[in-house]
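Per your request, structure below.
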């Protein structure tokens, strides 16, 4: 089987599980079976985790573990000792911290997309159209991510190439919006205070930016410091949005994503030593246009979802 055929088969299975799994989750939820819904979501996510492990193992394994074990124990070992040594050597790359760290890094985005989608399905219980829209875009994002993830592993580079980085950046922007929407919807559904949302925005912003820094191998002290500053700024904006925005958490998420993209765009240019006034104004104007479009279609007086009263602390 050629490498191209392997990729097509693997991604076809991913697409079948993701889209089919989302449809199954929506069906189960709308039957008002929350326990079965969460159990099914857990098993689907385990499958997604397994695929990342499988892709990682397929491209980073060191062939010849059985021969090395036989050479090591040819004079003093029996079959079981040789078999255990071969097994232990076969998965040596999965036992090293540098590889485990890389695996956890690549697990971050699909985990965010999947569980944010599951949360939005739950909040939109009975609103079939909203659930289907989230399922469609999240499914496309996950399939695109796994496609370029396999390509990343195939190239065996720790630093992600520019062509892959562009696609992953698009997926990451969608992930940010999805996380902001799911967090705001869930917290307001249970009338939790703005500090909870502020903390979530801080954590999500930090993890998303830090993942990008990891891809560029620029996780130094100064870069981490500015990541914390950007995360704090996003947390402050998130708290204000949570208090004053209407019930439409989707438009709130788009606005927060525009803010995130503004900060990250400037920071990215700064890290690449290509930040100019022209680049700054381009990012600012684009962010203002996006924010203006969101403000123009948002009714800030609508409080159908938000029956609670909030205030800034």
């Amino acid at each position: 089987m050629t490498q191209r055929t392997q990729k097509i088969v693997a991604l076809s299975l991913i697409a079948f599980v993701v889209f089919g799994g989302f449809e199954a989750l929506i069906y189960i939820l709308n039957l008002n079976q929350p326990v079965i819904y969460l159990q099914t979501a857990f098993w689907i996510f385990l499958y997604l985790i397994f695929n990342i492990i499988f892709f990682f193992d397929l491209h980073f394994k060191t062939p010849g573990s059985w021969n090395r074990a036989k050479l090591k124990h040819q004079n003093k070992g029996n079959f079981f000792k040789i078999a255990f040594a071969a097994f232990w050597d076969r998965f040596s790359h999965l036992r090293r911290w540098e590889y485990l760290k890389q695996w956890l890094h690549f697990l971050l985005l699909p985990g965010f997309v999947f569980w944010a989608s599951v949360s939005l399905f739950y909040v939109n219980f009975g609103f079939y159209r909203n659930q289907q829209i989230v399922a469609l875009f999240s499914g496309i994002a996950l399939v695109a991510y796994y496609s370029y993830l396999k390509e990343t592993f195939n190239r065996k580079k720790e630093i992600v190439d520019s062509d892959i980085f562009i696609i992953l950046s698009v997926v990451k922007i969608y992930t940010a919006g999805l996380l902001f929407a799911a967090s705001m919807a869930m917290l307001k559904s249970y009338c939790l205070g703005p500090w909870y949302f502020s903390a979530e925005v801080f954590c999500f912003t930090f993890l998303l930016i830090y993942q990008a820094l990891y891809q560029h191998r620029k996780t130094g002290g100064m870069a981490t410091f500015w990541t914390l500053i950007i995360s704090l700024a996003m947390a402050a904006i998130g708290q204000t949005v949570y208090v004053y925005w209407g019930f439409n958490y989707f438009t709130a998420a788009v606005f927060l994503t525009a803010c995130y993209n503004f900060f990250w765009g400037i920071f990215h240019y700064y890290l690449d030593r290509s930040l100019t006034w022209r680049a700054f104004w381009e990012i600012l104007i684009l962010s203002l246009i996006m924010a203006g479009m969101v403000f123009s279609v948002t009714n800030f007086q609508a409080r159908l979802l938000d029956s609670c009263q909030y205030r800034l602390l």
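The first helix runs from residue 3 to 30.

Regards,
D.
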